[in-house]
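JOB MANIFEST
job_type = single_chain_structure
chain_count = 1
residues = 73
[input]
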Amino acid sequence: MHPCEENGNQESALVFYGSSFITDATGELAEQDGREEEQVLLVTFDLDEVLTMRRDWRLYRDRRPDYYGNIVK
């Protein structure tokens, strides 16, 4: 149990489970940190490759963002 500024220097026996992660454009895990240590995650993506992949999926082909305003009115 260690006090910290984030909780007003109160001691706590709580353990928060979970960790940060970064996924690629397909949702695959690219990097993940541990549960106990502090860590900075850094992953480099080729944005041209991501754009090409998204175009190949054709998910965005029929999008009409110019009509979105009408939908939310």
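[summary]
The beta strands are 21-23, 29-32.
The chain has a mean pLDDT of 83.
exit_status = 0
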